Amino acid sequence: MYRIISVTFIFICCLGFSAICQDKDTVFLYNGQVLIGAVQAANFAALSIDDMDLKMQSIKLFRIKKLVIYEKFKIELVDKRILYGSLRTNGQDGRADILTAGGERINIHITEIYQLISMDNNFFTRLNGNVSAGLSFTKSSGIGQVNFSANIQYATKHVEYQLITSSIGSIDSGNYSRDNENFQLIATYDLDPTWFVATSLQYQRNNELSIAHRYLGLVGPGNKLIIRKNWRLVAITGITFSTEKSTEGVSSALLYEIPLMFQFNFYQFHHPDIQINSTQSVYFSLSESGRIRYDGSTNFSWQLIRYFYLNINPYTNFDSKPPAGSGSTFDFGIVVGLSYKF
């Protein structure tokens, strides 16, 4: 009788343990550690998992030995293929099988994953990005500078959204000056694995170029020119329409331009852990003969501890025909800050 009770108790415990572990994503690392929970996403060679014990963890793909994901994801590979399905281990170290919705089983190396986008309707599982802030002050000049920036991405099955914002301000004798501001919301819709349609809404302010504010909209095609395991290059063109107001109070009519934009991303997770994100844009005016504008911004991130990075951000702005009252056609600077990535 005692043996029957013992066996029954063990059986019930095993069933309970099985129920707890059922359909839990699992990440096996080369160092022997095993993470069990829910994979949230993967982007730029790093995978995020909400571990049952350790909570949210970011794991570099090259550290993953085996991978099991039960939920359905949009899976974009470095060879530009886009698949929909889940992932299972096939027993080979560093490799996994994609189980597609059509019943195919496709074997890949884990580091070939460029992006994982959850098909879950939970808003927060699709959200990732970083926020950065910095402050500098010198007693001799009595001038302080404050900077803030954020880069946030949100993705669905066909549409990806990106919010880019930055602000640089000066504190002089107790007065705060808004020197340089940028706020941009970009949405891209995939047409196929390479081509997409992009739309954008943007606000800009630049005291050096006498721009009190500029409101700009963009629509046009884009192409994922190159995607590799640790870098990518994307191009966007089309047409922009904008209005601007100078610091002298002069407002422009509706202006049209042809943009040529390049976005470059590089990431290296071996020592040192660095990431480089750069956007370079040239605008050729259709409304003002001979006017050419250029906006360039590059962000260098170096990991200090876990989720915290040291950011160095040089930027450049050029306008061959700036608004009335401007004494300069060129502006540049370097912003240093500390960022938190989520």
Question: Topology, please?
Answer:
Blueprint: H1 2-21, E1 25-29, E2 34-43, E3 46-51, E4 55-60, E5 64-77, E6 82-88, E7 95-100, E8 105-109, E9 113-118, E10 127-138, E11 143-155, E12 159-172, E13 175-190, E14 195-206, E15 211-227, E16 231-237, E17 239-246, E18 255-268, E19 274-285, E20 292-305, E21 308-319, E22 330-341
Antiparallel strand pairs: 1-2, 1-5, 2-3, 2-9, 3-4, 5-6, 5-9, 6-7, 7-8, 10-11, 10-22, 11-12, 12-13, 13-14, 14-15, 15-16, 15-17, 16-18, 17-18, 18-19, 19-20, 20-21, 21-22
Which terms would index this structure?
globular; 9-stranded antiparallel sheet; 13-stranded antiparallel sheet; 2 domains; Outer membrane phospholipase (ompla), Chain C; 1 helix; about 350 residues
In short:
The protein is mostly beta strands and 342 residues long. It has one helix spanning 2-21, and strands spanning 25-29, 34-43, 46-51, 55-60, 64-77, 82-88, 95-100, 105-109, 113-118, 127-138, 143-155, 159-172, 175-190, 195-206, 211-227, 231-237, 239-246, 255-268, 274-285, 292-305, 308-319, 330-341.
